[in-house]
Amino acid sequence: MNFLDGSLYPENQQPLIITAAPYAPSWVPSDFPEDIPVTMEQQIQKAVDCYNAGATVLHLHVRELDGKGSKRLSKFNELIAGVRNAVPEMIIQVGGSISFAPETDGAAAKWLSDDTRHMLAELDPKPDQVTVTINTSQMNVVEHWEDADVAGTSMADPEVYNAYKEMTVPAQPGWAEEHIRRLNAAGIQSAFQCYNVNSFESVERLIRRGIYKGPLVMNWVAIGGGMDAPNIYNLANFVRATPDGAVLTVESSMRNVLPVNMMGMAMGLHVRCGIEDNLWNQSRTKRMSTVEQIEQLVRISREFGREIATAQEAREISKIGVFYDTVEETLLANGFAPNRVGATQGFLRKAV
After folding, report:
1. Is the pLDDT reported for residue 346 higher than 80?
2. DSSP secondary-structure letter at 295?
3. How high does pLDDT run on average in the chain?
4. pLDDT tier, 348 (very low <50, low <70, confident <90, very high otherwise)
5. What span, in angstroms and rounded, lies between the C-alpha atoms of 92 and 80?
6. What are the helix (H) ranges across 9-157?
7. Residue range 52-66: mean pLDDT, rounded
8. Which cofactor does it need (predicted)?
9. In angstroms, rounded to a whole number, what is the distance separating the alpha carbons of residues 342 and 328?
C-alpha cells in the first residue's frame, strides 16, 4: 500500500469495518459464562448485539448445547439462517476451520478433513465469506500468552493447553486451489487468512494464475506460534506488499489485540475483536465481552476522527458478491501490476 501525504487523515480513509469474533471455539462456556452463548437463540442474539454495537462483519462459529464447538454443517445452516433473519445486512464470515476445538479433554486440537471443509461451499443459506488459510503452518495460538492470560480458565489445564500449543493449520496448495474454486462457484467470497508475507505471496500467485478472480480481502494474523508476531516491523512489511485495492484487516490475540487494532485504525486499515481473540482489558483486571471490545474500538476510532462503516458501506468496501472474468481484470481491480509480457521482467505500473 502507498501512504501519500494526508493518508493518515480520517477524511482520506475508508470508514472502519469492525469484525466481531464472539463465538470463541477455543474456550468453554465456564471460561466466560456471561459472554459465551450456547443455545441457538443466544448465539443469534450475540450477532444482533455485536451489530448494534458497531460490528458489520460476523466471524461465525457454532456451539452445541453441551458447549463444545459444533462440527455439524446443519448447525451452521441454522445459525446463518437465524442471523440473516435478525440482521440481514451484516456480513457473515464463516470460520473456515469449522471448529478446531478438541472433541474430548486432552484430545488434539485439529481442523476437520479436507472434504468436510470443502462442504462449506454448500452451506444454505450461503455466507458472504469463508475464511481461507493459505500454506500449511504451525498454529501455536498460546505461544505469546502469559500464565495470567489463562489463569482460571480451561486453558490452565496442561492437557488442553498442550492441545492448542501443538495445533497446525492444514492448507496445502491442492486443497486451497480446490476450496477457492468451490467457493467461487457458489458465489462466496474467499477471505484470506495471511500469516506472513509468504502466505500473501502465495495468494498473489493464485490470482496471477487465474485460480482466484475476485476482490482481495485479507486478515493479517499476528498471533505468533508459526504466524507473524504482533509488532510494527512485521505489520509494515506486510502492508508494504499489499496492493492499494485490497481490503486488509489486522488480527492479533490477547492483550495485543487493542494496540494492533489502534495501529490499524490509524493507518486506514480495518480491525477485528472479540473473545475468540482476547478475554481481557489492558490491565487484565476484568474480562471484556465482545460487545465491550467493539464499543471500545468505536470510541477510539471516532476519537481518531474515523467513522464506523455502516453495513452497506462495509459490503461496498469489501465488494461482497463481486467476481471478475479475467486475470487482467482481477489484477487491475486489486491494484496489482499486470502480469509480465513475454521476456520482460515486469513493470511496476498499472494497466490502463
Report:
1. no
2. H
3. 93
4. low
5. 8
6. 40-53, 73-86, 114-118, 147-150
7. 96
8. Zn(2+)
9. 15
**CA separation for the pair 336, 346 (Å, rounded):** 11
- Any idea what the Cα angle at residue 193 is, between residues 57 and 5, rounded to 5°? 75
Q: Over range 11-29, report the average pLDDT.
A: 96
Give residues with Cβ within 8 angstroms of 302, minimum separation 6. 308
- Rounded to 5 degrees, what are φ and ψ at 331? -60, -45
Set of cell numbers at residue 285: 483486571
Fold category of 16-334 in CATH: TIM Barrel (3.20.20)
Intra-chain end-to-end CA distance of the chain, in Å: 19
159 φ, ψ to 5°? -70, -45
Q: Cβ distance 154 to 31 under 8 Å?
A: yes
**Other Cβ atoms closer than 10 A to 133:** 23
Tell me, what's the pLDDT at 99? 58
In the structure grid, which three cell numbers stand for residue 22, read together?
A: 464472539
Q: Which residues in 200-246 belong to E strands, given as ranges?
A: 217-222
Q: Which SS3 state, helix, strand or coil, does residue 85 take? A: helix
Residue 290, CA atoms < 13 Å, CB-side half-sphere: 33
